[in-house]
């Protein structure tokens, strides 16, 4: 890593980066993901060389379909890349999401979430094909891509259909509202991204490899480096028990629908239409409406519970309890000599500055839609439904694994005890500490406590992938053709 010390980077090479990173393809409402093994590396190389992989370049007219290609570490090996090349990739990618027990424990993949109960993982897989199209266009796009040439090269192991993107996740909440805004032109040095104040801006190097990151550092990657203009892609299949969630909430609310909605909103931190429990009070750089808020004025969680899903997933200023105290105050507090009056014990212990832990989310829902009202009927369809959670980042440990472990799964997050994320928690003790509760803080200080909470989300599969830049894809293709 080289210190960039505020010197601006080159703006990102959009023509060499896969479009998913920049665009998210939300307007291409239909999507399917295909997990494959490489059957014949030479044929795979030939297919990849001419595959119409979508770049992040802006075109005169937005595309009607998109193709993105990601590899597992085993996939890169199967394409003939040697240990010398693979050694440059991140350890979690090389080991895989399920490769080590300690990783599974840290991610909360224990109990019913343990990999041995999953329907799939990346261990046997090589390539993830992501297909996107406008309404009605996916079947034709699939036929165009999955040709006999494709099948000569790859064996599909799992095809994951998704449900047309309507902006809502299966529990019924608007999703995809809060996204970090990437400073693509790298116009603002990271020091101006919110060292003193929360902003939604992050440096390109937090998502794409080879650019300046929030530490003001850049990995200098040569043109031949396969990591250049690439990103790590995390995929987890998260099954959602929609009737389970709404039945539980309805019971706790004694059948009062307004109270039920209120409880649901407290668990998420937003109402179903996306309205945050904390109303925007000020401009937050890079944030659209409904997202220009911080937790500065709600340190006790009286408006948005301290353990609500969005507060865990991105604590914004929940991690800066010493703001406004000056350097001496900060030092005294950090050394444990002083605590702010409005600070709960342990608030700042776990949480580092949020801008180092942002995720670019690109997930899609699957299964049929079920409204909360329909979910409450005794005959509610118990079909499989959930989220293909997908996120992109430059550092698997510092970004995805940190968020999943220290914020979502940790029972002591934000000074709380005995609770994990109310939506995602597996309710198993986490490192020996109970995690099956949820507290809504109240002015009296005791809070409304819900425990034991049932499990609403179960992990069904997952893997770590790498989404290479377009030149890197061509290098991989040529490599496979020459090597075999
Ligand atoms: C079935 C599983 C999940 C459901 C139903 C869910 C639902 C939601 C909803 C409704 C929002 C609010 C909308 C928005 O701000 O975009 C949200 C935000 C978010 N979620 Fe999740 N989520 C799930 C899994 C995850 C996982 C596994 C992670 C990370 C490891 C995650 C990270 C985030 C982040 C970072 C935000 C934005 C928070 C903010 O910036 O305020 N989510 N999620």
TrEMBL record:
GO terms for molecular function: peroxidase activity. Its cofactor is heme b. SUPFAM superfamilies: Dimeric alpha+beta barrel. Keywords: Iron, Metal-binding, Oxidoreductase, Peroxidase. Transmembrane segments: none annotated. PROSITE patterns: DYP_PEROXIDASE (PS51404). InterPro entries: Dimeric_a/b-barrel, Dyp_peroxidase. This is Iron-dependent peroxidase.
């Amino acid at each position: 890593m080289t210190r960039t010390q505020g010197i601006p980077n080159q703006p990102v090479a959009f023509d060499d980066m896969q479009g998913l990173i920049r665009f998210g393809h939300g307007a291409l409402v239909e999507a399917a993901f295909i997990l494959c093994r490489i059957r014949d590396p030479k044929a795979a190389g030939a297919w990849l060389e001419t595959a119409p992989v979508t770049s992040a370049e802006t075109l005169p007219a937005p595309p009607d379909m998109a193709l993105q290609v990601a590899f597992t570490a085993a996939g890169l090996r199967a394409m003939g890349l040697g240990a010398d090349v693979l050694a440059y990739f991140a350890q979690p990618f090389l080991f895989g999401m399920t490769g080590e027990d300690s990783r599974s424990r840290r991610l909360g993949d224990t109990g019913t979430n343990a990999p041995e109960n999953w329907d799939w993982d990346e261990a046997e897989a090589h390539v993830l094909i992501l297909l996107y199209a406008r309404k009605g266009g996916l079947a034709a796009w699939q036929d165009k891509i999955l040709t006999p040439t494709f099948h000569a090269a790859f064996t599909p192991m799992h095809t994951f259909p998704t449900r047309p993107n309507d902006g809502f996740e299966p529990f019924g909440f608007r999703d995809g509202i809060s996204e970090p805004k990437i400073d693509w032109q790298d116009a603002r040095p990271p020091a101006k991204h919110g060292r003193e104040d929360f902003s939604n801006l992050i440096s390109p190097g937090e998502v794409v490899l080879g650019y300046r990151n929030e530490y003001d550092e850049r990995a200098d990657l040569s043109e031949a480096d396969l990591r250049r203009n690439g990103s790590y892609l995390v995929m987890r299949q998260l099954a959602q028990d929609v009737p389970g969630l709404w039945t539980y909430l309805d019971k706790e609310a004694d059948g009062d629908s307004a109270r039920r909605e209120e409880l649901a909103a407290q668990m998420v931190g937003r109402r179903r239409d996306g309205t945050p429990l904390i109303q925007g009070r000020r401009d937050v750089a890079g944030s659209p409406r409904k997202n220009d808020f911080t937790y500065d004025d709600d340190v006790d969680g009286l408006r948005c519970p301290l353990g609500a899903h969005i507060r865990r997933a991105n604590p914004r200023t929940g991690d800066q309890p010493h703001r406004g105290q000056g350097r001496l105050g900060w030092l005294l507090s950090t050394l444990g000599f002083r605590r702010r009056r409005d600070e709960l014990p342990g608030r700042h212990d776990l949480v580092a500055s949020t801008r180092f832990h942002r995720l670019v989310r690109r997930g899609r829902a699957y299964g049929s839609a079920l409204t909360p009202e329909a979910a409450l009927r005794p005959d509610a369809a118990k079909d499989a439904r959930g989220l293909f959670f997908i996120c992109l980042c430059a550092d698997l440990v510092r970004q995805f694994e940190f968020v999943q472990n220290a914020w979502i799964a940790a029972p002591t997050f934000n000074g709380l005890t005995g609770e994990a994320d109310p939506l995602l928690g597996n309710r198993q003790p986490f490192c020996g500490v109970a995690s099956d509760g949820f507290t809504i803080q109240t002015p009296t200080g005791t809070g409304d406590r819900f425990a034991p909470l049932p499990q609403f989300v179960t992990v069904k599969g997952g893997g770590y992938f790498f989404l290479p830049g377009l030149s890197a894809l061509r290098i991989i293709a040529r490599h496979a053709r020459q090597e075999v």
